[in-house]
DNA sequence: CTAATAGTGTCTATTAGACAATATATG
DNA sequence: CATATATTGTCTAATAGACACTATTAG
């Protein structure tokens, strides 16, 4: 038997097991900023550190199902939440216990009630993404990846509406873009742009009950439209440093 | 111990093992069309069916490393190949042997030599993506996902240059776009557009040795530039059916 | 009233794309 | 020479973004 025959006959069941987890980057907008759901680990390893919610997949359970379950365990919510696969991480030493491959998911939700700590967590809360504690494992990298994905998807998908409530004003939608992108956008141009993208929002015919907190007319209320892609897209102001 | 405590204490090592594989969607342009590398399975399950190259990850091996190894085993090449993570698949019954989670990778290469079959494959060859045989497991879904990713990435990254050789003409680059997107593009407008995107291509100062096969002047030769994102992007002609 | 906000109008620069023109190869 | 291709020029429509303006509401 030469080397290639040996390798072809490699049987993973003969080796120390690999475990598979899902980890969820759940984002929401709260207190004027973008926040991520973190749990404080109750168990070793990294007990006491903050981490993304997640856990081992169970027999018979598909990956998206596992991600939704992990999220629901902390937030109690599963509807009104957009969830999609982000990426997978499998560096051999990323978990000290054993070889663990993590499939990460990205979730977007409107402002949710306070999370409850699952029984494997000492605490759970929404953390501003620009003021993060030290994270367990490689979760800082996963989170950074999730943030970049979210920022990009705002450009060409109607994802922003997943951060808003059932009905929203154009200003609220602009607030989502400004918060996630960390920029300020011109109100007038943004307004016209949104209404010019077919299927992004549709009018409810209603308006807000009152004007803004500091004055201004009542705003028209919209709901999410049926577009799955925005055309033309809403592009972020170009950042030269991102291009090269 | 209530249910949540039980679930928190769930230990994956107490259950039947999960295995992790990598599968590679390797694309190239050959014979005027887009092709994908497939191997004919020599072993059960699905012996005799075509499948994406892939296999179990090995102890101590990171995921991208495993993908590069699997690709190299079939093609003999590892440099000049762009490789990136695509997505993960973990439906419980996707492999009849046991619970297998697959991390898929997407690879792009210029026209490569004929593949050699690895020892776990009866055959290996480049198949036109528009005339595919039946595929093993859920590999048709993985491949479809890879194709859509590749088409999208041509828009906003310099990926097309990964399909071309070291030096290429603007016409060759246009051929890549036309082949991957399956459309025909206006030569003049494409030419000017490419040169207007900063960092996409840079001139070598050379030209082709002779004109085209059926006449025409010698074309200038370019190499890939240093841009990582194309700005402005080269958008595919909008397709209304994709938007809704 | 004053200040802030919603929504609309207008103008300019950029870009995509249709179409034409010119020069240079092949056969 | 006839024809194909590379490259450049010109024009039009769509779009992004700067800026201005009006109407409406909170305080």
From TrEMBL, chains A, B:
Belongs to the Nudix hydrolase family. It holds the Pfam family NUDIX. This is NUDIX domain-containing protein. Keywords: Hydrolase. SUPFAM superfamilies: Nudix, Winged helix' DNA-binding domain. Residues 19-149 form the Nudix hydrolase domain. It comes from Streptosporangium oxazolinicum. Signal peptide: none annotated. The keyword Hydrolase applies.
């Amino acid at each position: 038997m030469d080397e290639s025959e040996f390798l072809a006959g490699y049987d993973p069941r003969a080796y120390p097991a690999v475990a598979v987890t899902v980890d969820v980057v759940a984002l929401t907008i709260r207190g004027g900023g973008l926040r991520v759901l973190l749990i404080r680990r109750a168990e070793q390893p990294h007990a006491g550190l903050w981490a993304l919610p997640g856990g081992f997949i169970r027999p018979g359970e598909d990956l998206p199902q596992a991600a939704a379950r992990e999220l629901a365990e902390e937030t109690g919510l599963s509807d009104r939440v957009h969830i999609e696969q982000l990426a997978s991480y499998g560096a051999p030493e990323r978990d000290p216990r054993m070889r663990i491959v993590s499939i990460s998911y990205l979730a977007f939700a409107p402002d949710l009630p306070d999370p409850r700590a699952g029984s494997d967590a000492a605490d759970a809360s929404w953390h501003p993404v620009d003021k993060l504690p030290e994270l367990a494992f490689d979760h800082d990298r996963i989170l950074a990846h999730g943030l970049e994905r979210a920022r990009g998807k705002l450009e060409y998908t109607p994802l922003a509406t997943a951060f808003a409530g059932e009905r929203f004003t154009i200003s609220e939608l602009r607030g989502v873009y400004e918060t996630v992108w960390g920029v300020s956008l011109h109100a007038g141009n943004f307004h016209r742009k949104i209404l010019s993208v077919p299927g992004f929002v549709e009018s409810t015919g209603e308006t807000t009950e009152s004007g803004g907190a500091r004055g201004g007319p009542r705003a028209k209320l919209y709901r999410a439209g049926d577009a799955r892609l925005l055309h033309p897209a809403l592009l972020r102001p170009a950042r030269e440093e991102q291009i090269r």
